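Cross-check.
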Amino acid sequence: METKIVEFTKPVLQGDMAVPGDKSISHRAVMLGSIAKGQTQITGFLDGEDCLHTIDIFRQLGVSIERDGTSVMIDSPGMQEWETPADNLYAGNSGTTARLMLGILAGSTINSVLTGDESLSKRPMNRVTLPLASMGASIAGDSDSNLLPISITGVTLSAIDYEMPVASAQVKSAILFAGLNAEGTTTISEETVSRDHTERMLLQFGAKIRVDGNKVHVKGGNVLHGTDVIVPGDISSAAFFMAAAAMIKGSSVTFTNVGLNPTRTGIIDVLESMGARVEILEKVDGIGEPYGTVNVSTEGLRGTEISGNLIPRLIDELPIIALMATQAVGTTIIKDAGELRVKETDRIAAVTSELKKIGANIEATDDGMIIHGPSKLSGGTLASYGDHRLGMMAGIAALVASSPIHIENPACIAVSYPGFFDDLEKLTVSKNAKG
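Predicted model, tokenized:
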């Protein structure tokens, strides 16, 4: 197995950085640009493996997609003119691709089989397939359509009123996509509002959608038209460097063009509650996604509690928050985060196991973690579990560890942040990184 050795000697992080484009928004831009009729220009696209799988799928459906780095041009005949694919549609390790495609394909005019890699094939899909079945979707797969591969026969769907049992932007988005081609108006209710990138982008493409508090209504029979989409920097990727700047006294990092969607800025709330200094230097609001410039610095951290409505706003950031908590004075409690159990891996078990290896005082609970700090972290070998968030957490751990960190399977980081290690080294004033 490939291993990367990362080591720093008394580093301080200084400088400006622009993180790669937002993964969630990049996926949705390609999907809606392919559903819509006409041309869509995407600027700031994340050219990571997950998003490239989404592009490959739509190319198989007959959509013309040209990519030049982070610029993507889509020319689509519209969803009704898609071609039946000659081969299975492969989502790789991308849960977003798989779950959202289920909603899209269910109301299409084609037949297809959706597959994924070994890891994705173990992740639950019935949270999407069950509500789709209630809309009349024709879906078949192993374990009552809970596991990939899943075959989808496109049919005319019926609108539903659906109450979300847990906050999940993937499930919500899959149902909204299905609702575009359903007879009637589909309504989704959430107790806690999850990230709203799909709702914002549907409006950009001309969908008949209305948001009323914690309810979203989408009218069927939509004809979408191509448009221009700007993808801001991914705050979930920036979170790793925000946490690093917050852990190491004397650090100051400014993040440019980073997404500031309020359904995604939970990491900023946590940083502030733990005593870090966060300053929003500029914010741009308009059609689509808000974004801006943010500076993070610190003079020390304290423990905090992370729970309730805050969890959906930072679910992907919890591994790096757990690492940050090991350097804070006092106890940090993370709860109401059971969704971590069904990510790329069981992130509660994995984060707890790996951080314990290097000296963290951390324990797992059913729905979260309890971290007592501060802890002096040693070096050691950390497994990524093929999970990009855990691989990046291990890389950041090297900044505060007393000896080198050996990261197993670091290549998994490329699904969301291909240049992660380059950016990590560029920001460190100490240039003693080895890898």
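Confidence is low (pLDDT under 50) at residues 431-435. The radius of gyration is 21 Å. Passed to J.P. for a second look.
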